[in-house]
Predict the structure of CobW C-terminal domain-containing protein.
Amino acid sequence: MDGNEMSVALENRVFNRRSGMGGGRMGCTLITGFLGSGKTTLLRHLLDHRGDLRLAVLVNEFAASDVDSLLLDSARLNSAFNLSTVSLTHGCACCDVRGPFRESLLRIVDSKHNFDCLLIETSGLAKPEKLVAVLEEVGIHLDLTVAVVDAESLEKIIKLDIVKKQLEHVDLVLLNKCDLASLSQVADAEDILERVTGGAKVVRSQFCKVPLDLVVDTSKIEVLNLVNEECSVPPVLSHEALPKMAFRGDMHQNLSVHISYSELDNQPLVVDGRDNSKSQQYGIPFDVSFQSAAFESEDPLSLAFFQSKVLRRINSTGGLLRVKGILCFSEDRESQFVFQWSGLKRVEAVSGRPWDGARKSCLVLIGIDKSKLDDIIAQMLQSIDFVRRSPIENLLYKEYARTFCNKVTSDGRFKDPSLEKEPFVLFGLRGSPLRGIKEAHLNTALMRIVNGKGNIFLTATTSGQEYNLQILFDEGSDPDNAWNEIRLAAKAVISKLCKNFCPCRSELAIHVH
């Protein structure tokens, strides 16, 4: 082969990245699962570990606000390709597979970027069976259908028709949140999945941390080890408008706040083939209409008010299924907090990414009772008013903070606390990287346990390898009670994560007290 022929061959390899796929057809992984199971977490994990793969992503949200594009930071990723990001809201991609959704698939297929694979995340209320035919029509091959399942809640929701539909014809089930479930719950969930799916492969996971090639069929993709390409080829997320649901907006006489609602009508939940429209089981009526409320505000919220009022209302609201979004707090306006709520055992607010553009809170709530969603929205509005009429400076918090810092300093399991981000107190458990005990794992687990009890609200901040917890004291706080609860939770976390280490090998284990 002469020099020109070699150049042409190399060019073909570079620009026809799917040369190993028959006919050059793009492969697709369909990701489904009920609300709060971890689908977006899986997408973020795949995008963070994609190597040099070009991944196109379609995300659907049952809400009037496309909060998933904020959580996945799609505007920044798309800008690398000079692509615009439009909103995929008010609907379910699997309910309306013609029109805009089909057009977005065609644009991806015809894209000059020559993507290796398409990832589609359906809404948590989607029935994905209608997608397959449309994918075939536009020339996309469905490689895998992956269902993400919450290990702890599966037994409670498996009789819902919508959940059964999501588990039909799946190739792989990620049994997620195994860290929150007991061994018996995990075993029972595996038995249920084997029966419902007809023996599909089930993989246990925490935070959906699984190998890329488990979810993306890389065997059909010729992955090139080009120099520096690992960081030079970002993924792209495409969001397409699908106006399917009933929609109405409400400005609440505040130009800086926008509140909108979506509703999924005529969606009866059939249980075991019977129409139990007047019944209720597992806390969800069978004749339910799912409701979604989107709260957007250019004004910052008060974290002190949020943790003492809003969060407690969220935790006590029956029929609430999911809350997620980006929040701006007046106590730390420079940071955007990613908030996730999918039940008491999964409550978190993590900062670490700076704002890209104007600061704006955007929160989506999904439930089965609009009036209860309205109650939470009303609390959010009060949080904004609280910032306007209350000064951030509070001398009482400083006394509480010093008391708390002294207690943390006296416990060798914790790093030295810091007040460098007033009014927050920064603290956290010490990790042991040489023994495989990462600081992030310890402090994430500690935050889950403490926040799950609902008495204290810890946030977190990340920077590189640093993972610190934050606590904010207000007038209703008790630093002694807060420390006692955190201390006992730390004992449980360390005992669980360090149980395989002998005291002579792990300084963490000997500090359990």
Remarks:
- The longest strand covers residues 140-150.
- The radius of gyration is 24 Å.
- The chain has 15 helices and 19 strands.
